[in-house]
Amino acid sequence: MYDLDFSVDRNQKRRIKIFDEQSYMNLRIGLTDNKPGWQILLKQEGISYEIIPCFSNIKYSDLSALVVNGFNSLKQRDNILDYVKSGGAVLVDAEMSSELLNVNMKKFRIKYLIPEKNSIYSEVGLVDIYQNGLIPKDGDISSLDNGLKIKIKEIGKGIVLILPFNVNKAILDFSTSCRRFYFKRKELPSERVSKISKGEIRKIVRISLEYLHHIQGLPFVQLWYYPKGNKNIFAFRVDTDFSKQKDTKALYKICKKNEIPGSWFVETKTSMQWLTDFKKMQNQEIGLHCYRHRVFKDYNSNRRNLEKGIKILNKYDIKPVGFVSPYGEWNYNLGKAIGNANFQYSSEFSLDYDDLPFYPYLKNRFSKVLQIPIHPISIGRLRRSHFTDEEMMQYYINIIIRKIKLNEPIIFYHHPSHKKFDIFDSIFKFINEHSIKKFDFARLSSWWVKRNEVKFNAILEDEKVIIGSNNFSSDFWLRISSAKYGNSITQIRPEINLRNLEWHKKGEIISLHKDINHIRQFSWRNFLYDLESIQGKFKQ
């Protein structure tokens, strides 16, 4: 993550002057509808927001930005436009842009989008969307990022930022697809994951809201992602399906040697003869992978599979709080079964990957089970794509370095049956050399559950941010960014003087590789890998 960088033009100075005439500014986002996908993103980012279904009598100083994700009357539309004309900043997506702006729109099919180099969105990766998109055709609308098709339109003293896709629809999409992941070689690793790049969409929304604050001369305030101001975290997941006892012991030895608090998810059917080994592990978490290594379409089969696995672990006095599914698969009935089994968290990359934790939305309610996304490429997938050991190691180092720069969680997984223990020994050493804070999944989920319960509001008065919150624990920090000062991570407290913070200016621009679209070009290997996966499941 790095600071946004854009020049202060005449129009921006005019908008900053609007704020200067106010005695205070409420640094809070408004939502015009309670769409669950938008709420998931704002909670992930730790952004203070409120739902304002009847948008009336809202002054410019009441909200620092407004997300228009629905309205039900022309009167409400007029109230929103009055807010913009008075100096307000609005974020709108393809679902509502044509209705709000009353402009001609061009329809186009979006498979994926790639941000422009050196734009404020350049840290965003390739974005899989697979929707029908809309962009305005009017001449008085300018482009903020041609690659992502993001537009801006000035109305009166305010500004509207327009995204070309339906955010809520994308975040609530449960479909999967075989995806290839980048490395500088012809044959690439692949895995069946979420079809939509939800983590990249989250970043687009955060950067858009941050831009709308900065262009008004306002600081952008959010609850930080990690405890006590840590810049990153590392977590290591182990899926034990069909592993041999000696391989499990070998991997545990490396975790213990490098002080890695691993999270082990046990496939109980083939390891019943040596489950005591897991009970004896020190500073390791033991969770459930499954009894039978399958995910079923119906609720009862999933429920029975979970119950049988839990019963076996309980027999050895192992009380799992977490679950990860076979093959990283997720569906509604599995999500329902996980919730009814009272797990605290689960982790399935077919639902989401390379993202922040969140609570999935199950048709008409939010799940009570936290989802922890991981990086989905394992040693087994690299081996299947004929990577050498040196290439495997470099693949993971590349991922770690990018995530360090972007302040993203670094979460890998491994199967003991795939061996290659020396590679993870080297990865663990690299993590320790960079002093990255290490968590097991249980501890990470417990902290994130508490973070999700933190409520705060921020009011800007001159150069001070006044914070009201239900939790001022030293565990929780804020990230504050400013076009004037830069970026700062600071402990949450009732009053923050912006002049006294330790600010960091923009670092290097993080852009994608020039040949990034190579990962979405047709490959016959995807069909082969899908066929092998289907055949493997029938054997379970």
Task: Please give a structural write-up.
By secondary structure, the protein is an alpha/beta fold. Helices cover 31% and strands 24% of the residues. The chain is built from 15 helices and 28 strands. Strands 3-2-4-5-10-9-8 form a 7-stranded mixed sheet, with helices on both faces. α7 (245-257) packs parallel to α13 (421-433) and α9 packs parallel to α10 (332-340). Residues 6-21 have low confidence and may be disordered.
End-to-end span in angstroms? Answer: 42 Å
Q: Which structural class best describes the helix and strand composition?
A: alpha/beta
Quote the beta fraction: 15-25%
Low-confidence stretches: 6-21
Cα gyration radius (Å): 24 Å
Helix-residue proportion = 25-40%
In short:
The two termini are 42 Å apart. It contains 15 helices and 28 strands.
Secondary structure topology:
Blueprint: H1 10-20, E1 25-26, E2 29-31, H2 36-45, E3 49-51, E4 65-68, H3 74-85, E5 89-92, H4 97-101, E6 105-113, E7 127-136, E8 142-145, E9 150-155, E10 158-162, H5 167-171, E11 176-180, E12 190-194, H6 198-214, E13 220-223, E14 233-239, H7 245-257, E15 263-267, H8 276-280, E16 285-290, H9 299-315, E17 322-324, H10 332-340, E18 345-347, E19 361-362, E20 365-366, E21 370-371, H11 379-384, H12 389-405, E22 410-414, H13 421-433, E23 437-438, H14 441-453, E24 456-461, E25 464-469, E26 477-482, E27 486-491, E28 495-497, H15 524-538
Parallel strand pairs: 2-3, 2-4, 4-5, 5-10, 14-15, 14-22, 14-23, 15-16, 17-18, 18-21
Antiparallel strand pairs: 1-24, 6-7, 8-9, 9-10, 11-12, 13-26, 19-20, 24-25, 25-28, 26-27
Helix pairs in contact: 7-13, 9-10, 12-13
